[in-house]
Amino acid sequence: MSVGKRKIRELEEERRKSRPSFILFVWLIVMWQLLWGEVTWANVAGGIGVALLVSIFVPMPRVPVSDISVNWPAMIGLFATFFVDFIVASFTVAWLALRRSDPPPSAVVEVPMRTRDDLTLASAIALINLQPGGLVIDIDNRRKTVTMHLLDGSSTGRIDKTIAQLGRLERQVVRAFENRELDDAPAPGDFGHDHAGVRADAADRKED
């Protein structure tokens, strides 16, 4: 290959890398709709505007998609399940706020993540943070674990139920983005010393 052709290919590669990622552009629009909680023409237009501003004025590296193989039927199932869980979690948090009893004690747990790609991990964390009742407060990318604050840690049963729901969400995200199946989620007691400490503390509370 001549020097001239090599330089042309290098310039084309640089231009390709400098172009905004279409996947990131669409994902920003979707996240904008989820943050507002409803899909309207105004929200769609606002999401497109935000995605354009981010793409132009806050350029980011292209999303690494070496292990990404989108499974569109699984993607549809993921969002359908997410919206159902979102509605249920919203009513649960609303009930905790409106009932006459004292608010339940919270809990901090460490949960392993079995994703292979950074985009898959980021997508799973974004969906988890959008669900009422829980928030990711720390990410250990090396160990592929996340530390979560749970609003309702009143019992081991309640904690285990929340972790099982997160495991189901993770399996669906991996199925949608990496097109592979995960084994059943590990037992909650296998999540390491931090989580074991939380479970021991919660065991003194009321069992479900």
Automatic annotation (TrEMBL):
The keyword Transmembrane helix applies. It is found in: Cell membrane. Signal peptide: none annotated. Keywords: Cell membrane, Membrane, Transmembrane, Transmembrane helix. Residues 191-208 have a biased composition (Basic and acidic residues). Residues 183-208 are annotated as: Disordered. NCBIfam families: PRK08965.1-5 (NF006521). Belongs to the CPA3 antiporters (TC 2.A.63) subunit E family. This is Na+/H+ antiporter subunit E. It comes from Corynebacterium hansenii. The lineage of its organism: Bacteria, Bacillati, Actinomycetota, Actinomycetes, Mycobacteriales.
